[in-house]
Amino acid sequence: MAESIIDSIGEGTRQINRQPHEESLFGFTISMQQDYILTYQLGPDFSVYYIRKLVNVGETQPYMGVYFGNFPSYDGAKSFIAISGKILGQNINWHQEARTIDADTQIETLVKINDDGWAQYMHIFVCPKTESDWNELKQMSESLTPEN
Q1: What is the largest CA-CA distance in the chain?
Q2: How is residue 42 annotated by DSSP?
Q3: Which CATH number does the domain 15-146 belong to among 3.40.50, 2.40.10, 3.40.1000, 3.30.1380?
Q4: Helix, strand, coil shares, percent, the chain, to 5
């Protein structure tokens, strides 16, 4: 039986878009770079989108998470380095937990996106493998714009 299941596996019809393109996430648009894909996880009162770089099996995958909700898990106080930036027209600080960038580095920021009596946040957390990954992921985060 196992062999018949294995024999039934074939190439699918869907194609992964590896080219630069636009993606939609929680009412915003982001410009994806070459070899990055978007996945998401919906919670009961929050959403988390993940932008992941396609890599070879066994390699560490650089990624960025974008949390949308009211209760982000964010602690900029534990950072070693603050890096200035701009997201959605707001001046922000990225907080880096380590002095150098490697596979264990996390860099994060918090952006308030709504305050109509109930604050809503965008918590962006980046886990780059290299300085080049960081630059690509930071550039993508800075491309976020509201959808019309």
Answers
A1: 59
A2: E
A3: 3.40.1000
A4: 15, 45, 40
Taking the CA of residue 38 as centre, how many other CA atoms within 13 Å lie in the half-sphere pointing to its CB?
Answer: 20
Q: What residue type is assigned to position 100 of the chain?
A: T
What residue has token string 């992941």?
Answer: 52
Residue 23, helix vs strand vs coil: strand
Please answer whether residues 13 and 117 qualify as being in contact, where contact means their C-beta atoms are separated by less than 8 angstroms: no
pTM, whole model, 2 decimals? 0.85
Q: Which tens digits make up the pLDDT trace of 95-112?
A: 887 666 766 788 999 999
Identity of the amino acid at 137: L
Q: What's CA 88's distance to the chain center, in Å?
A: 15
Q: Indicate the DSSP class of residue 131.
A: H
